Amino acid sequence: MGYYNHKKKEIYVALNSLTDEQSYNIVETVIHEGRHAYQHYALENPEIHPDHKELELWRKNTRHMGGVYLSPMYDFMYYYQAIERDANQYADQK
């Protein structure tokens, strides 16, 4: 439904998902992708994030930082990656 482009620092949402029935999912997607933007910013500015162990997990899971990132199209472990798990938990907060 959407993704974050780190190089351009932009969040993309698929236009075909902009329907009334999907409005909650769109908001959740923007929050999820916004968390990815924060994760990348925190990796580049570690002083803003208090949990340095979490930063190291994110770093190991971020391709542009030399880590390994699994694609959702090819690996079911995608959902268990540190950055995806964190972004999902963040978006699910009430």
Whole-number tally of structural domains? 1
How much is the radius of gyration in Å? 14 Å
H/E element string? EEHHH
Structural class call reads mainly alpha
The main sheet comes to: 2 strands, antiparallel
| Binned strand content | 5-15%
Number of helices: 3
Helix content: 40-55%
Strand order of the largest sheet: 1-2
Topology, number of strands: 2
Distance between the termini: 21 Å
- Look at the structure and give the mean pLDDT: 88
User: Poorly predicted ranges (pLDDT <50, ≥5 residues)?
Assistant: none
Silhouette: globular
Structural overview:
This protein has 94 residues and is mainly α. It has one domain (2-93). The chain has helices at residues 23-44, 52-60, 82-92; strands at 2-5, 10-13. Strands 1-2 form a two-stranded antiparallel ribbon. A hairpin with a 4-residue loop joins strand 1 and strand 2. The longest helix has 22 residues, at 23-44. It is globular.
Which properties best describe this structure?
94 residues; mainly alpha; two-stranded antiparallel ribbon; 3 helices; globular
Topology (elements, then pairings):
Elements: E1 2-5, E2 10-13, H1 23-44, H2 52-60, H3 82-92
Antiparallel strand pairs: 1-2
Helix pairs in contact: 1-3
